[in-house]
Specification:
By secondary structure, the chain is mostly beta strands. It has 1 helix and 14 strands. Among the domains are: 44-107, Roll (SH3 type barrels); 125-188, SH3 type barrels (Roll), CATH 2.30.30. It has one helix spanning 2-25; strands at 44-48, 55-58, 67-71, 76-81, 87-91, 99-102, 106-107, 125-129, 136-139, 147-151, 156-161, 167-171, 179-182, 186-188. The strands form 4 sheets. A 5-stranded antiparallel beta sheet has the order 6-5-4-1-7, with no helix packed on it. A 5-stranded antiparallel beta sheet has the order 13-12-11-8-14, with no helix packed on it. Strand 2 (55-58) and strand 3 form a beta hairpin.
């Protein structure tokens, strides 16, 4: 019994000594350098400025992240700096993070010519993609089977009526026709 009491007292002394040492040697916060959480920056509009192809939206801020969507050259998108150098957080709706894009292919210059030169007279206007849950397919012809690319829900794009009922000409640069999209999923902005 005495051995058990000594053992319990010994353990208790070690615990008390450990807590005491922690309280003595722990660093106290410097009141002048308290870090307050920063509100994430707001999403801003950028133009996709790839040279020839679409910009991949990645699942992680890395070229090894899986491609979850692609954004056509000339598209206006919502993005903001991420904590990973060289990468921006991409948002379809300007509120929630959807994925990541390389900042090398974004331009803050949103200006672009919208003097249409496709097969239908008139100029391109900006539309918002309003699909319910998936991307909007860009097809090679109105009612076409071949999909050229896809536009994410919430993307801001250039389009104009095509002359075929229910279909709009889509333009990646606001100048020439890239393909055709269903007018059902476009909202004029």
């Amino acid at each position: 019994m005495k051995k058990q009491k000594k053992l319990i007292l010994g353990i208790s002394a070690l615990v008390v000594a450990g807590v005491g040492a922690y309280l003595i040697f722990r660093k106290k916060p410097n009141r002048g350098s308290i870090i307050t959480p920063q509100k994430p920056s707001e999403f801003q509009k950028f133009r996709v400025s790839t040279q020839t192809s679409n910009l991949n939206v990645r699942s992680a801020p890395s070229a090894s992240g899986s491609t979850i969507a692609s954004l056509p050259k000339g598209s206006i998108i919502f993005a903001r700096e991420s904590s990973t150098s060289g990468w921006y957080e991409y948002s379809q709706d300007g509120i929630n993070v959807t994925g990541y894009v390389s900042k090398l292919y974004l331009s803050s210059d949103l200006s672009g010519s919208n003097s249409g030169s496709g097969s239908t007279s008139g100029s391109y206007s900006k539309y918002k993609v309003t699909t319910i849950s998936s991307n909007l397919n860009v097809r090679d012809t109105p009612n076409g089977i071949t999909i050229i690319t896809s536009l994410p829900k919430g993307a801001i794009v250039w389009a104009k009526p095509s002359g075929t009922s229910g279909w709009f000409e889509y333009s990646a640069d606001g100048k020439t026709t890239t393909g055709y999209v269903s007018e059902t999923y476009l909202q004029l902005i």
